[in-house]
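Weekly modeling sync, notes
Attendees: AB, CL, MP (scribe)

Item 1: holo prediction request
CL wants a bound-state model with 2-acetamido-2-deoxy-beta-D-glucopyranose before deciding which constructs to order. AB pointed out that an apo prediction alone won't tell us much about the pocket. Agreed to run with the ligand included and paste results into these notes for async review.

Input as submitted:
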Amino acid sequence: MGCRSGSAPMVKVLVFFVLYVSLIHIAVGKVHHHKFVVESSSYTRLCSTKNILTVNGEFPGPTLKANRGDKIIVKVYNKASYNITIHWHGVRQLRNPWSDGPEYITQCPIQPGKMYKYRVHLTTEEGTIWWHAHSGWARATVHGAFIIYPNRGSSYPFHEPDAEIPIILGEWWKKDAMEIPGNANKTGGEPILSDAYTINGQPGYLYPCSKNDTFKMKVDYGKRYLLRTVSAIMDEEMFFGIAKHKLTVVGKDGCYLKPIKTDYVMITPGQSMDILLEANQPPSHYFMAARSYSSAVGAGFDNTTTTGTVIYSGSYHHPPQPFAPYLPPYNRTEASTDFTKKFRSLVSKHLPVRVATEVDTHLMFTISVNLLNCSADKPCTGPFGKRFAASVNNISYVQPTIDFLQAYYYKIPGIYEMDFPRNPPNKFNYTSENLPEYLLTPSFGTKVLVLEYNASVELILQGTNVLASDNHPIHLHGYSFYVVGWGFGNFNPKKDPLKYNLIDPPEETTVGVPKNGWVAVRFRADNPGMWLLHCHIERHQTWGMTMVFLVKDGPSPENRIFQPPHDLPKC
Ligand SMILES: *[C@@H]1O[C@H](CO)[C@@H](O)[C@H](O)[C@H]1NC(C)=O
Ligand SMILES: *[C@@H]1O[C@H](CO)[C@@H](O)[C@H](O)[C@H]1NC(C)=O
Ligand SMILES: *[C@@H]1O[C@H](CO)[C@@H](O)[C@H](O)[C@H]1NC(C)=O
Ligand SMILES: *[C@@H]1O[C@H](CO)[C@@H](O)[C@H](O)[C@H]1NC(C)=O
Ligand SMILES: *[C@@H]1O[C@H](CO)[C@@H](O)[C@H](O)[C@H]1NC(C)=O
Ligand SMILES: *[C@@H]1O[C@H](CO)[C@@H](O)[C@H](O)[C@H]1NC(C)=O
Ligand SMILES: *[C@@H]1O[C@H](CO)[C@@H](O)[C@H](O)[C@H]1NC(C)=O
Ligand SMILES: *[C@@H]1O[C@H](CO)[C@@H](O)[C@H](O)[C@H]1NC(C)=O
Ligand SMILES: *[C@@H]1O[C@H](CO)[C@@H](O)[C@H](O)[C@H]1NC(C)=O
Ligand SMILES: [Cu+2]
C-alpha cells in the first residue's frame, strides 16, 4: 500500500511491542516519551482575554517528532474541568484501537483529574500528520503537528529542505468553544461562526489588536523550506497561499505525492500537507494567507482572512503592507477541484502502490445534511423552524454510553447494533436540484458495519443535495485509503469504474467529497478493531455525519487486536 508499503513494519511493531513490554530497548525503532497536561490557560486574541483548553499551556500544542516506525508513549493528564481524549490523526494504530482516541468509539473519556497513557505505534506513516482532542469541541484549541521523518539513514524523496516549519491553520472564537455545540443544540440552528482564523495561533494583520503578534516566518533568499501544514480548522475548508511564491505540494496525510506546483492549495479540516517553499523572490515582506472555501448555498461562514508574514533576511525597502496572495473566491468549487484533481501517489521501488484490483466488498454511503421537525414541547429556531441533523446512509449517529470497542471486547450487550446499511436505504437522484421534503428527515442509530478481516473494500462516498450540497471532508480512522476516482453528480457503477486510477491513486486519510459529487476509495480491511468514519467539519460530525466500522480479527494471533491496557478509562 503506497507509502505504507511492506509487511516488515507490522512484524517490527509486534516484535517491538513485546520488547517494550519487557522493557528492553534495542535498535528496532526508538521509543519517545511525552507528557501532555491538558489544562485551562489564559490567552488574549482580538482585544479580549479568555480561558482555553491547552496542552502544556501551549496553543497550538507541542509538535511531536519521530522517525518512521517509532513508538510514542504519551501520558495525558487531564487537569481541566472537561472530559478529554486525544486522537493521533493519520496513525493507523495497527491492532491497537485502544489508543486511537475518539470518545465513546474506542475509549471512555479521560475524566477530570485522571490520566491515560496512549501508545502510538507508528508503522509506515511518513510526513506530516497531527494530533487533536476527540471529545466535544475541545479540538478547537487542543491540537498540534506530528512530524514523521523517514527511517534513520533514509532521505526524503525530494531535495532536502534547508529548514522546516509547522504551519497550523486554526479557528478562534471570542466565546468559549466548549460551549458551542451545547448552545447550538438548544436552538437547533448553526453553531456560532468563529471570529477569526489563525496561523500558528495568531489571527494576523487584518484583525483588530492582532498586528503586533502575527506569525512571522524568516527566510533567507535561495533557501528551501518545508511547510508542515495542518488544517486544525473546525468548520471550513480553506484556500491557502503565499504572495508571489509558488508552492510545491509533496505529501498529504502522511503519504508522499508526485510534486504539485501551485499558486494556492485547498485544505480541508483534518488534512495535512507537506509543502515546499523556495525563497526565490526579491527580498521583501509577503503575506501567507488563508480564507474559506465555502460552497454550501445559504450556509453562513466566517468570511475573514488570516495572514502570517514571510520576511526575507537582509536590508531592503519593503512596502508598508506586505504583498497579498491570490486566493480564489469563497464559492469557487472549480478552484478547489482544479487543485485536488492533481493528487497522485509518488510511486517508486521503495514506495509501490498496492491498490487492490479485485474488490470483494462493495459499499456505498450517502452523506447528507438533514432537518428535523420540532414540536411545541421542544421548539427550535433552525432553518424553517426546524433543527439540523446529518447522516451517513440516512442514519444519524447516536453516541452510546460505553464505547463501542469495550462493548465489543467485553461482549457488553445492548450498546450497538450490527446492521449499518451497506448501501443507501433509498435510491433517489442524490444530486437533484429538487428533492422531495420527505427525504430531509434521517433515522437515528448506534450501529456498526461489520467487515471481514482482510476484505478488499471499495467504498463510494456519495454527496447529496438533501437540504444543501457541500464539500465534506471524510476521515477514516485506522486506515489510509486509495482515492481511485471522483466526479460530480451521481456515481455511475457502470461507467465510472472504467475511469478509475489504479496506477498512482493518492493515498489519504481525509478526502474531500466534492459538492454534489462522489469519490471512490479502496482499502484492505487488515486492521482489526472499531474504526470511526466521519465528516471532519465539526458541526456536521456533531449533527451525526458519523459511522463506525467493526473489522473482525484475523485467523492468527498476529492479526487480532491487542489486549486492552490496564489503565483504560472507565465510563
Ligand atoms: C440536543 O437537544 C435535544 C433536545 O432538543 C436532546 O434530546 C439531545 O440530547 C441534545 N443533544 C446533546 C448532544 O446535547
Ligand atoms: C503594538 O506595538 C506598538 C509599537 O511597539 C505599540 O505602540 C502598541 O501599543 C502595540 N499594540 C498592542 C495592541 O499591543
Ligand atoms: C466577504 O467579505 C468581503 C470583504 O469584506 C465582502 O466583500 C463580501 O461580500 C463577503 N462575502 C460574503 C459572502 O459574506
Ligand atoms: C459566488 O458568489 C458570488 C457573489 O456572492 C455570486 O455572484 C456567484 O454566483 C457565486 N457563484 C457560485 C458558483 O455559486
Ligand atoms: C414535518 O413537518 C411537516 C409539516 O411542517 C410535515 O409535512 C412532515 O410530515 C413532518 N415530517 C415528519 C417526519 O414528521
Ligand atoms: C438528477 O438531477 C440532476 C440535477 O437536477 C439532473 O440534471 C439529472 O437529469 C437528474 N437525473 C435523473 C436520472 O433524473
Ligand atoms: C430516512 O429515514 C426516514 C425515517 O425512516 C425516512 O422518512 C426518510 O425518507 C429517509 N430518507 C432517505 C434519504 O432515505
Ligand atoms: C490478505 O489478502 C491478500 C490478497 O488476497 C493476501 O495476499 C494476504 O495473504 C491476505 N492476508 C492475510 C493475513 O490473510
Ligand atoms: C464525562 O464522561 C463520563 C464517563 O463517560 C460521563 O458520565 C460524563 O457525563 C461525561 N461528562 C460530560 C460533561 O460529558
Ligand atoms: Cu460535512
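Recorded for review: The chain has a mean pLDDT of 94.
Action items: CL to compare against the apo run; MP to circulate these notes.
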